[in-house]
Amino acid sequence: MTSLLSLRHYSHELLSHSHSHAQIVFGLSGQLDFEVCGRGSQVSQLTFAVVPADTQHACGSRDGSRCLVLDVPSEQWLLQRLGRHADAGRSLLDNPGALQLAPAQGQLVGWLAANPSNDPVIAEQGAALLLASLVSESGHPGEARRLPLAAIDAYIDQHAAHPLQVADLARLAGLSAARFHARFLAETGQTPMEHVRNRRLQLGLDLLQNSPLAVGEIAARVGYGSQSAFTAALSRRFGCTPRALRQRRE
Known about the structure:
Regulatory protein of the TOL plasmid xyl operons. XylS activates the xylXYZLTEGFJQKIH operon required for the degradation of toluene, m-xylene and p-xylene. By secondary structure, this protein is α+β, with helices and mostly antiparallel strands. The chain contains 11 helices and 9 strands. Helix 3 (103-114) packs antiparallel against helix 4.
């Protein structure tokens, strides 16, 4: 990464790659077809696309497209340049997709595109100002984007009998496993795998108290390899054996 801001022209040739830094692509002219994490979108004037770090993405333009690209250097840069907006900046950069610019933001993008992006002062200050405008309290798109916890729980419930990894849940949020782990811990106070374990045990409790299934069958349905492991986990979580928990309901 040589400059924070750069002007780029895209043609019909499809580009597909990933990079270790986050990126924002602002449309100037033409239309750029974009795909990030399997989500398709289009970038044109007054729109921009967010590409999280380490995320595979593809883009191309049948009739040609001109864009201003902001390559975000590091977490430390975000903290130094955005101050109290740093958390909102991280939230924005964690969520792939195309979003709309306000007219004033579009004017700023146009001004930066018209000035020499290889000037380190313009690039540094301009990039910080542009990113701050996207995450300001006046209504940035990143702050409201919380993790899709309901969809995550539904996925856990549906696949409780099978092995689950953090990466499986991270894909639902369009994040890397490391980013998802940090975000999940911050939003819920527990790690993703702690949540999976608690969710499985709650499902097991519901089956114990609302179905005639044998304990071994319930253990298998909620992802435990043996009845003894399931019994031990239930006892740690609820302080009772499966038989006692079932009798409580009765």
